[in-house]
């Protein structure tokens, strides 16, 4: 599996899962790797250095990934062979404690941003290109305090199915990867973080938590020629966590 000479965009690519995805593409031969990030310049610069060390040219795209401005700048950096929407945020609260502005922020960043980016970038993407959205088990299962993020991920997965059909005539594939519990900085926003980790370890048949590299490998597979006939699917990477009753 190689991506020699490929141009890749990974939103939320400066840390955690997104960083692992960006670096994996570089390791597999990508020539240019653009990473979208919101505001942490230091993390972005550190990731850029690692990308250079892996042999890829890093491109930094700063700002709210759901904005038309960032989408337009992304299009100018293209054309891309791979577009990965990994950036995610959201308000972690019980449903009845949320507000409309929380809904708008979460759904815009996690789901609508992919549509905005696809509208901006897909017209330039060559045949054989791929779009991947990074989802989570909360899209189909009820997790504590996860109402808005879960709904946004369900929306993301539905959008991937529609994009897969609409973009197929243009030679562009669309899929999603749904990750289990991954111990990254993103878990710090959950009040029950430690319980999530301990429960994940206890009930995962594989005997360990999912690591960012596991997700990165799945994303790269879906973007490879070997996955040519995988369209509009959500690949679950959770070590078997979701199989248990």
Could you characterize the architecture of this molecule?
- This protein is of the alpha/beta class.
- It is built from 7 helices and 7 strands.
- Strand 5, helix 5 (147-167) and strand 6 (173-179) form a beta-alpha-beta unit.
- Helix 1 packs across helix 7, helix 3 packs parallel to helix 4 and helix 4 runs parallel beside helix 5 (147-167).
- The radius of gyration is 17 Å and the shape is globular.
- The mean pLDDT is 94.
Oligomeric assembly: single chain
Strand order of the largest sheet: 3-2-1-4-5-6-7
- Biggest sheet statistics: 7 strands, parallel
Indicate the mean pLDDT: 94
Separation, N- and C-terminal Cα atoms: 35 Å
The number of helical segments is 7
Number of strands: 7
Give unreliable regions as ranges: none
One letter per element, helices H and strands E, the order comes to: EHEHEHEHEHEHHE
Our estimate of the beta-strand percent is 15-25%
Q: Structural class of the secondary elements?
A: alpha/beta
**Can you tell me the overall shape?**
globular
Helicity, as a percent range: 40-55%
- Rg from alpha-carbon coordinates: 17 Å
């Amino acid at each position: 599996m190689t991506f020699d000479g490929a141009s890749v965009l990974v939103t939320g690519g400066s840390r955690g899962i997104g960083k692992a995805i960006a670096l994996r593409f570089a390791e597999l031969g990508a020539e240019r790797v653009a990473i979208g990030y919101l505001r942490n310049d230091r993390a972005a610069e550190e990731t850029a250095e690692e990308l250079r060390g892996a042999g890829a040219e890093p491109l930094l795209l700063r700002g709210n990934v759901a904005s038309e401005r960032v989408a337009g700048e992304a299009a100018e950096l293209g054309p891309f062979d791979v577009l990965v929407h990994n950036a995610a945020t959201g308000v972690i609260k019980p449903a009845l404690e949320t507000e409309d502005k929380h809904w708008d922020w979460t759904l815009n960043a996690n789901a609508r941003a992919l549509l905005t980016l696809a509208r901006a970038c897909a017209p330039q993407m060559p045949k054989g290109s791929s779009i991947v959205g990074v989802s989570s088990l909360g899209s189909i299962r009820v997790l504590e305090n996860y109402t808005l993020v879960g709904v946004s991920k369900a929306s993301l997965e539905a959008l991937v199915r529609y994009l897969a059909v609409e973009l197929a005539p243009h030679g562009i594939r669309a899929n999603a990867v749904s990750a289990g519990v991954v111990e990254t900085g993103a878990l710090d926003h959950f009040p029950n973080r430690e319980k999530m980790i301990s429960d994940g370890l206890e009930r995962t048949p594989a005997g360990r938590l999912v690591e960012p590299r596991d997700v990165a490998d799945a994303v790269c597979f879906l973007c490879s020629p070997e996955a040519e006939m995988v369209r509009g699917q959500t690949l679950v990477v959770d070590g078997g966590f979701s199989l248990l009753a």
